[in-house]
């Protein structure tokens, strides 16, 4: 019950954070691009619950859930959304470029598939230093059509790099349905053609995700080489806040909403977890979000004098 409660708390934190971000974006307090993770919370929560602090994480432009599940403080994430200097990327990255070296979160990447070669480089470094670490690399199914996907899977298998590839198959690459983009619909089978251990997972079931991540991480740490999880999930909201979302049937969205990962876990925890327990959890999360927003609103933007800082290293090798 304790483990399930922490998983539920994390998914609720991500869901409510995203919903507040949508409100703040609509009121122009958050600007730029905004890609929400609503519906996919079980993936980040389940996978990252099985990683160690010394492991590395590479994310996508839909990265808020990964950052929160990784342990990046909510106030630092929210401040980054506001473009404030107290943000995890000093306000320079915004929604798509969350980065926190202290939590070994190496982006946030606006380029589709752009995190794949970064993950391979991190993993090669761990391997060469003899470090028993795992690099979790998140990417969408749209990235599986990119050249980086094939190149990185091939090299990772060839060099037995410690990478846990986490394909968040949310069924749509922007507005293009998965079946209209990929001739071969089984991404796990495609990864297997490169010699990777790979399997598909119900990405709407946080317990299934957690167990698969545990199994994969154990294999990787034992020297078995890279693994790929195809996490079949769904985003309940549009691709981004600019997306009019005219490409999905309402019936399809309703079907996936019936598989809501938060509701599924909450129902599995009954009767031990009561409505009063849920209300208390929601109140705790709401207070955390309110504080993060207030802190972000009160923070400063980066001084103009510092705008060229960090363009080059401040430390001479």
Automatic annotation (TrEMBL):
Its EC number is 1.2.4.1. GO terms for biological process: pyruvate decarboxylation to acetyl-CoA. The keyword Oxidoreductase applies. It comes from Lentzea albida. SUPFAM superfamilies: Thiamin diphosphate-binding fold (THDP-binding). It catalyses: N(6)-[(R)-lipoyl]-L-lysyl-[protein] + pyruvate + H(+) = N(6)-[(R)-S(8)-acetyldihydrolipoyl]-L-lysyl-[protein] + CO2. This is Pyruvate dehydrogenase E1 component subunit alpha. It holds the Pfam family E1_dh. Keywords: Oxidoreductase, Pyruvate, Thiamine pyrophosphate. InterPro entries: DH_E1, PDH_E1_Alpha_Subunit, Pyrv_DH_E1_asu_subgrp-y, THDP-binding. Its cofactor is thiamine diphosphate. Residues 9-301 form the Dehydrogenase E1 component domain. One of its GO terms (molecular function) is magnesium ion binding.
């Amino acid at each position: 019950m304790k483990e399930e409660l922490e998983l539920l708390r994390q998914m609720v934190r991500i869901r409510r954070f995203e919903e507040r971000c949508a409100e703040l974006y609509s009121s122009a307090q958050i600007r730029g691009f905004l890609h929400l993770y609503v519906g996919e919370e079980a993936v980040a929560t389940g996978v990252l619950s099985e990683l160690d602090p010394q492991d590395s994480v590479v994310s996508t432009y839909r990265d808020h859930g990964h950052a929160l599940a990784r342990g990046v403080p909510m106030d630092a994430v929210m401040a980054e959304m506001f473009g404030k200097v107290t943000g995890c990327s000093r306000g320079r990255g915004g929604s798509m470029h969350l980065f926190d070296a202290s939590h070994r979160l190496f982006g946030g990447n606006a380029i589709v598939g752009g995190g794949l070669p970064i993950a391979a480089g991190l993993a090669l470094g761990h391997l060469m230093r003899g470090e028993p670490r795992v690099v979790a690399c998140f990417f969408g199914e749209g990235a599986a059509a990119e050249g980086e996907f094939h190149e990185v899977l091939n090299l990772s298998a060839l060099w037995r790099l410690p990478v846990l590839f986490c394909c968040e198959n949310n069924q749509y690459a922007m507005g293009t349905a998965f079946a209209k983009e990929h001739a071969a619909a089984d991404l796990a089978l495609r990864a297997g053609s490169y010699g990777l251990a790979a399997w598909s997972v119900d990405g709407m079931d946080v317990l299934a995700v957690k167990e698969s991540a545990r199994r994969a991480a154990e294999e990787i740490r034992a020297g078995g080489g890279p693994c790929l999880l195809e996490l079949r999930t769904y985003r309940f909201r549009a691709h981004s806040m600019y997306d009019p979302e005219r490409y999905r049937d309402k019936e399809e969205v309703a079907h996936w909403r019936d598989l809501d990962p938060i509701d599924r876990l909450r129902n599995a925890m009954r009767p031990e977890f009561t409505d009063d327990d849920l209300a208390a959890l929601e109140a705790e999360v709401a207070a955390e979000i309110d504080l993060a927003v207030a802190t972000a609103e009160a923070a400063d933007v980066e001084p103009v004098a510092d705008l060229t800082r960090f363009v080059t290293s401040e430390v001479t090798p």
